[in-house]
Automatic annotation (TrEMBL):
Keywords: Transferase. This is GNAT family N-acetyltransferase. The keyword Transferase applies. The keyword Transferase applies. Pfam families: FemAB_like. It comes from Trinickia dabaoshanensis. It comes from the Bacteria. InterPro entries: Acyl_CoA_acyltransferase (IPR016181), FemAB-like (IPR007434). One of its GO terms (molecular function) is transferase activity.
Length: 417
């Protein structure tokens, strides 16, 4: 069950720490005038302008494309009714009329689908008789992928956008503002606006120019290499074969199969899926060049599937993002093959530089994934809670750094002399 919206409209004083004075002076010295827009749907901004802005960023992802964000709204996955009310922020250059900056902002009345967990904060508010919802969240719904969140033509526009988000939170009837999975540089910029930084851990696989899968395996410790081969052999000996279907070649039957597998995963965890078949069909039509389906079959009958998103990049080589998987029948080690090993082979064949396997999962290290620090930024209106959370985040950051150091000491690769 998801929380209801009974906390909407509750007033909460906004007396958070002010933007530092030197930052205020810097903003005043920037003479460009911007017209702010607060949009109730991504459909209200021109798709070509939005995507042109995405393409200019240092760390763009397919999830910031207009096609992806508009599909979430158009198919009723991220709407007021599901607790993700779009309030996209835009800054238009008054002199040129061009879109200078933008951010995907949502009004939330729960904390589902975010992957930066603040349930303890919400509980603390409730125990003290204060409403935590609604809150503002700048993020891609249901997508724990780090990348640009403050789309901007230059640093000046990005600073102005960051200041606009904080000012909007201060002037709104919300408890807090959260920017989830921004780049490290954006987290720095948001900290300059008085927001509190938070860190987390994900596990990413890096392509060291591998020629083939066995080339990658040869870099692992013997035990890890042996275990992976054993897992792959179990799936192969069970008679399972695989098809990798690019988005351009996916049929409606493929999307219906994947949706069935996706929903089965949520059913097994006694939860409700965030996405629906219309969403998968929509992105299958609007951005097929970014999509890959891995389909597992037994005697010609599909029994499992995973969906991955990828983006090529001339500078870095590109990234593959693991998103969802599901199986209609149980086969030992099928998950590892469908969601990890087949995608890793795809990365190597396509010379993609990084495979981001999704949120959490220390078990990924045994399969060649390494710990990577992620970022978020937070502003709380209530001064006492802001101070308490700041102390908590300082302590948490120390624990995160210590844990990352410990994990890196036990990476799965052969130790070099």
């Amino acid at each position: 069950m998801r929380p209801d919206d009974s906390t909407k409209g509750t007033t909460l004083a906004c007396t958070q720490r002010a933007v530092p004075r030197n930052t205020v002076r810097q903003l005043k010295q920037e003479r460009i005038d911007y017209r702010m827009g607060l949009l109730g749907s991504p459909a209200e901004v021109d798709a070509r302008e939005w995507n042109a802005l995405v393409a200019r960023q240092d760390q763009p992802t397919p999830f910031l494309r207009h096609e992806f964000l508009s599909a979430l709204t158009a198919t009723q996955c991220a709407t007021e009714d599901t607790g993700w009310g779009p309030r996209f922020v835009t800054l238009v250059d008054e002199n040129t009329g061009a879109l200078a900056a933008a951010a995907p902002l949502y009004v939330k009345n729960h904390s589902y689908g975010e992957y930066v967990f603040d349930w303890a904060w919400a509980d603390a508010y409730q125990r003290n008789g204060l409403p935590y919802y609604p809150k503002l969240v700048c993020a891609v719904p249901f997508t724990p992928v780090q990348g640009t969140r403050l789309l901007a033509v230059d640093d000046a526009a990005r600073r102005r956008l960051a200041a606009t988000l904080v000012a909007l939170a201060e002037q709104s009837d919300v408890s807090s503002l959260h920017v989830l999975f921004p780049t490290e540089q954006e987290a720095d910029a948001l900290a300059q606006m008085g927001m509190m930084r938070r860190q987390g851990i994900q596990f990413h696989w890096l392509n060291d120019g591998y020629r083939h899968f066995d080339d990658f395996l040869s870099t692992l410790e013997q035990k890890k290499r042996k275990n992976i081969r054993a897992e792959r052999r179990k799936v192969r000996d069970a008679g399972i074969t695989f098809r990798r279907v690019r988005g351009e070649d996916a049929t409606d039957a493929d999307w219906r199969l994947f949706n069935k597998c996706y929903r089965q995963t949520y059913r097994e965890h006694f939860s409700s899926p965030y996405l629906n078949l219309d969403f998968f069909r929509t992105i299958g039509r609007s951005m097929p060049e970014n999509l890959l389906l891995v389909i597992a079959e037994y005697e010609g009958r599909p029994i499992a599937s995973s969906l991955l998103v990828y983006q090529r990049d001339a500078k870095t080589g590109g990234t593959l993002y693991g998103r969802y998987w599901g199986a209609l029948e149980h086969v030992p080690c099928l998950h590892f093959e469908t969601a990890y090993y087949q995608p890793l082979e795809f990365c190597i064949e396509e010379k993609l530089a990084v495979f981001e396997g999704g949120a959490q999962g220390e078990h990924k290290m045994a399969r060649g994934f390494l710990p990577t620090v992620t970022h978020s930024a937070h502003w709380l209106a209530h001064p006492a809670f802001a101070d308490a959370v700041a102390r908590f985040l300082d302590n948490e950051a120390n624990l995160i750094h210590a844990h990352v150091d410990e994990l890196r000491e036990h990476d799965p690769f052969k130790k070099r002399a």
